[in-house]
Amino acid sequence: MTRLDDFLKLPISFSQDLSAAALSYTTTMTRKFRVKSISFKASQNITEDITITRDSHLGATYDIKLRTKGLVAEQNYIYVPERGDDSFNMGDNIKIECTNANGVGILYGELKLAEA
């Protein structure tokens, strides 16, 4: 059953033309939240690395890589955190990076969050 608070945050979208630069996106959250999913879709098959990091409010020493995914001639990827990895404290953020080693394609993404 879906909880009411699952609908309290609108999806956050981002995109980057990988022929121009690598993707580096960080949320700016001011409340506690949970990550429901982060989905990626490229305009074409890409071979790049996606990294998702917990950007801790305590500073870089406390940042934790949640997932690094190497895409090899792939167009789609969805990250769904395991229970326990989905809860973030007030002031924590999510940092999403994608390399542009091959310099082709546009990467689109969407974060689905819920209030914690």
Keywords, please?
seven-stranded antiparallel sheet, mainly beta, 7 strands, 116 residues, single chain, Jelly Rolls
Q: Rough shape?
A: globular
Strand percentage = over 45%
Q: Would you list the SSEs in sequence order as H and E?
A: EEEEEEE
- Which whole number gives the mean pLDDT? 91
CATH class division: Mainly Beta
- How many runs of DSSP E, i.e. beta strands? 7
Give a short account of the largest sheet: 7 strands, antiparallel
Please name the fourth-level CATH homologous superfamily: Galactose-binding domain-like
- Which class best fits the helix and strand makeup? mainly beta
Radius of gyration: 14 Å
Provide a count of the helices: 0
Helix fraction, binned, reads under 10%
N- to C-terminal separation?
17 Å
How would you briefly describe this protein structure?
This protein is mostly beta strands and 116 residues long. The chain has strands at 12-17, 23-26, 33-55, 64-79, 87-88, 93-98, 106-115.
Task: Write a structural description.
This protein has about 120 residues and is mainly beta. It has one domain (about 5-115): Sandwich (Jelly Rolls). It is built from no helices and seven strands. Strands 1, 2, 3, 4, 5, 6 and 7 form a seven-stranded antiparallel β-sheet that branches. Strand 3 and strand 4 (about 65-80) form a beta hairpin. It starts with 11 loop residues before the first strand and ends with a strand. About 20% of the residues are buried. The model has no long low-confidence stretch (mean pLDDT about 90).
